[in-house]
Design a protein that fits this description.
Blueprint (H helix, E strand, L loop, with lengths): L1 H7 L8 E6 L4 E8 L3 E9 L1 H5 L6 H23 L8 E7 L3 H18 L3 E5 H12 L7 E6 L4 E8 L2 E7 L5 H11 L6 H9 L24 H17 L5 H27 L3 E5 L6 H13 L3 E3 L3 H4 L4 H12 L23
Parallel strand pairs: 1-4, 4-5, 6-9, 9-10
Antiparallel strand pairs: 1-2, 2-3, 6-7, 7-8
This protein binds 5'-O-[(R)-(carboxyoxy)(hydroxy)phosphoryl]adenosine and zinc ion.
Length: 354
């Protein structure tokens, strides 16, 4: 393998090239990542249009589409990087958490390639991928730091002690932040995916027009709870309906968004200060929210904290972030066997459970 790369003349024999595969939800994605932070290709086939008519991701449809697309996406990622499988040092694949049928497609593809070529396999935690997305564009970013991971399935406050070493200090008790965005968007008729649609609609509204609750979890100051907020929005919509009052969608979107952002920013900045971190990182699909970024910018500046976030395309699901996380696992010596299985409830740091 190394000789082949030398013949090509384009690679250093020490280079670590990772073929990364991601299929945990509704994006079929593959990427080639060089030495952890160099993205040679990042191909994403988004299934959003397919699921929009149902108002959310339909797991069975997602799995079937992944099967249809996975080989094509992998081939495209290699071609765009100007590489072949022979050039790859390792294959990194998301094996959890996520939809079991969707995960299985990526895991099976990665195992098949590993079996056929002998290229080592590295299983990656999806959230570790989201956190690692920040290393791609912020070349100076190194652990330790504090990270807020906010996606459709997760809302975690994580102390990143080192590469691959995490301590979760806060988590949601019910809905994830992205899930709340998606549910509220559906309730006000904006459709799926709710996050970007609420983000856009909120720009036309007044965030102070309706007061929605900011939940605190007793005895767990960094935990989140968004189901009460979601219910408050639904109650507001119902009571307007009963009184025959017209609903101002933009005001609801802006007020709801502000309530989510206030809590996310307050908890994160508080945790950074209490744990003594001067670096705060945000990750996951919701990290592309414009109000969240603006508010973090302001609060981090006021508190002399350096803020890092990925560009929007690297916030939502992609395989480049899995390649970066996989690289740091690979150089630590982590390898998985062909018995690697999809782990829908995989915990950060290993094991099953939430
Ligand atoms: O990280 P991601 O692509 O998938 C998961 O791992 O869940 O996150 C998707 C979530 C969805 O809930 C989507 O509504 C939300 O991220 N999202 C946003 C924005 N863009 C995506 N939420 C708020 N504002 C946005 N601009
Ligand atoms: Zn994700």
């Amino acid at each position: 393998m190394l000789d082949n790369r030398l013949e090509n003349g384009s690679e250093d024999p020490e280079d670590v090239l990772i073929l990364a595969i991601e299929s945990s939800c509704d994006e079929t994605a593959a990427a080639v990542v060089k030495n952890g932070r160099g993205v040679l290709s990042n191909v994403i086939y988004s299934q959003i249009a397919l699921h929009t008519v149902y108002g959310g991701v339909v797991p069975e449809i997602a799995s079937r589409k992944h099967i249809e697309k996975i080989n094509q996406v992998i081939e495209q990622a290699l071609a765009e990087a100007g590489k072949t499988l022979k050039d790859m040092t390792a294959i990194a694949v998301t094996y959890g958490p996520g939809l079991v049928g969707a995960l299985l497609v990526g895991v099976s593809a990665a195992k098949a390639i590993s079996f056929a070529t002998g290229i080592p396999l590295v299983g990656v935690h999806h959230i570790e991928g989201h956190i690692s997305a920040n290393f791609i564009e912020n070349k100076d970013l190194e652990p330790p730091f504090i990270c807020l991971v906010v996606s459709g399935g997760h809302s975690h406050l994580v102390v990143v002690k080192d590469y691959g070493e995490y301590e979760i200090i806060g988590r949601t008790r019910d809905d994830a932040a992205g899930e709340a965005f998606d549910k509220v968007a559906r309730a006000i008729g904006l459709g799926y995916p709710g996050g970007p649609k609420i983000d856009k609609e909120a720009r036309k509204g007044d965030p102070e027009s309706i007061h929605f609750p900011r939940a605190k979890v007793a005895g767990a100051e960094y935990d989140f709870s968004f189901s009460g907020l979601k219910s408050a929005v639904l109650n507001y919509l119902n009571s307007c309906g009963m009184k025959g009052e017209e609903i101002n969608t933009a005001d609801v979107a802006a007020s709801f968004q502000k309530a989510v952002v206030d809590v996310l920013v307050e908890h994160s900045v508080q945790a950074a200060k209490e744990y003594g971190f001067d670096k705060l990182v945000i990750a996951g699909g919701v990290a592309s929210n414009s109000l969240l970024r603006e508010t973090f910018e302001k609060e981090c500046k006021n508190n002399k904290i350096r803020l890092y976030y990925p560009s929007p395309a690297l916030c939502t699901d992609n395989a480049a972030m899995i390649g970066t996380a996989g690289y740091y696992e690979y150089i630590k010596g982590i390898r998985h066997g062909l018995d690697l299985n999809a782990a829908p409830n995989l915990k950060l740091g290993g094991g099953e459970g939430r």
